[in-house]
What does this fold into?
Amino acid sequence: MRAAQVIPVTLLLAFAANAQVFKAGRCPTPAVQANFDASRYLGKWFEFSRLPTSFQVGQCSTAFYTLKAPGVIEVLNSELLDDGTVNSIVGTAKVKDPAEPAKLEVSFYEDTPPGPYWVLSTDYTGHSLVYGCTDYGLFHMELSWILSREPTLPKETVAELHAILSSIGVSVDKMLTTVQEEGYCSAMGQ
It folds into this structure.
């Protein structure tokens, strides 16, 4: 193997070691929430489960969305780290195309490109299913979150959301359940 081939393979292995979900081929293009209403989506959401990521390592994760301007949402993500500290980051979600308001792009740093944040399903008061995928040539990287307005979700709802993800090829067996126990998460002010 030549040096030019070793570097991309090494980078891919480094990403894989960081628990990102990489798959062969291009990203799927799932249907998103019809008639998505961002104003009903605002407020606090608890992370119920997610695909592994290298940038999210804590528990008790929450997202808080507020409207900054039409088509622009401020994102405040927080998590409780193992050492008891709360890690938070603020970003911006923007609607890419007003004809498809459930397809947002989220950015947390000015010098990095935004990532896709597609709302595949939400009832606004109980659950939200979020999916993001980025193509990298012959591979793609998937992200997904199941969010809830309360720390728990009914098993039937989780099964429905898993079925949506499975239908687009997401390995739901890789989803990590987020700890949201009241005593453990008390440092988060939940």
Summary: The longest helix spans residues 3-17. Residues 26-188 form a domain with the Lipocalin fold (CATH 2.40.128.20). The chain has one domain: 26-188. The chain has a mean pLDDT of 89.
